Amino acid sequence: MRLTQRSTPQRSATVKRDHGLLRQQIVEQLLADVVQGGLTAGRHLVTQDLADRFRVSHTPIREALIALAGIGIIDLVPNRGAIVRKVTSREFREVLQVRRALECEAVRLACGRIDPTELQSLAGELQRLAQPGGTPPGKFIEQCRRVDSRLHDLISASCGNRFLAIELDRLKMLFRAFRDVSYTQQKDRQDFRRLADEAGEHLAIVEGLLAEDRKAAAQAMALHLQGGMKYWTREFPDALETEPRLRNGRKHRHNGKVTNGASR
Questions:
Q1: Is residue 252 part of a domain?
Q2: What distance in Å separates the CA atoms of residue 164 and residue 56, rounded to the nearest whole number?
Q3: How confident is the model at residue 238 (pLDDT cuts 50, 70, 90)?
Q4: Is 33 a residue whose pLDDT tops 80?
Q5: Distance CA 28, CA 12 (A)
Q6: Positive or negative CA dihedral for 144, 145, 146, 149?
Q7: Which CATH number goes with the domain that contains 139?
Q8: Do 63 and 77 reside in the same domain of the chain?
Q9: pLDDT class for 32, splitting at 50, 70, 90?
Q10: 169 with 54, same domain?
Q11: In terms of domains, do 108 and 78 share one?
């Protein structure tokens, strides 16, 4: 008699988590490729090629592409598949505006819902990160990444609004790709000023949460995201399709197209 292995709820949950983690890893790697310039606008993403690269079936690849389409990084075109989009600086700013609105609302809702012990632990770590001292660069970067994810995930999970948390998780994929690339660049340059500033910004959020001061926490979150926006648009100008620039205070057109400078 052949015995068949029956699926238990615990086994099914484990398989589901592993599948979700695999999809997340593929999304994160493809996002990093876009941000770093390895996948340029107009590039056609072939499912089979990606399946071979990641050594997985087509299912997690398709799910990852759907997730990337959901945050505006690729277009899913009928009969053509997935194509990397041109993301304009205006679109990037608009996405950040949406994220800022959602994060500020989440932090307001999370006030009074988070264990103070958890927040005090975060505050202690952030105080240390604000003064790197002699911490080895690789370890320091990893600590910054972990604490950043921990704080934003804690706020999302504690906001009490499932739909808000889902939207935040979707947007965090995009901005964590920018974060991780920027961290790598700072490590290469041995320049951790932005990371120290970011730790201070995070600490202000945590202090607002500890005081259960919704207004202070939301203002600190808004300032934090504004600082990130300024940094990313300066560090990654080539990751975005730049909009027509002004010269002498005007936009110029040449043969019906917007051009920079005086017409020829």
A1: no
A2: 31
A3: low
A4: yes
A5: 24
A6: positive
A7: 1.20.120.530
A8: yes
A9: confident
A10: no
A11: no
Q: Say which residue the tokens 């990606």 belong to.
A: 50
In a domain, 7, yes or no: no
Looking at the fold, whether 175 and 194 belong to one and the same domain comes out as yes
Instruction: Compare 253 and 126 and report the one with higher pLDDT.
Output: 126
Beta bridge partners of 81: 77
- What's the one-letter identity of residue 29? Q
Give 201-207 contacts, CB < 8 A, sequence gap 24+.
201/227, 202/122, 202/126, 202/147, 202/148, 202/151, 203/123, 203/126, 203/127, 203/130, 205/107, 205/151, 205/155, 206/119, 206/122, 206/123, 206/126, 206/151, 207/123
Q: Which of 195, 216, 193, 191 has the alpha carbon at shortest distance from 206?
A: 216
Q: Residue 26 class from Cβ within 10 Å (0-12 exposed, 13-18 middle, 19+ buried)? A: buried
| Calpha distance 38→60 (Å, rounded) | 21
Which stretches does DSSP call E strand in 81-120?
A: 81-84
> Does residue 83 contact residue 42 with C-beta atoms inside 8 Å?
yes
169 within a domain of the structure (yes/no):
yes
Spatial distance between the Cα atoms of 263 and 215, rounded to a whole number of angstroms: 50
Q: What is the pLDDT of residues 97-140, one digit of tens each?
A: 999 999 999 999 999 999 999 999 999 999 999 887 777 888 88
- Residue whose C-alpha is closest to residue 37's, from 259, 193, 235: 235
β-strand 257-259 against 252-254: which pairing, if any?
antiparallel
- Residues constituting the chain: 264
What whole-number percentage of the chain has pLDDT above 90? Answer: 47
- Count: domains in the chain: 2
Least confidently predicted of 69-78, 97-106, 174-183: 174-183
Alpha-carbon distance of 231 to 39, in angstroms, equals 22
Full domain range(s) for residue 114: 89-237
Report the pLDDT averaged over residues 166-170.
Answer: 91
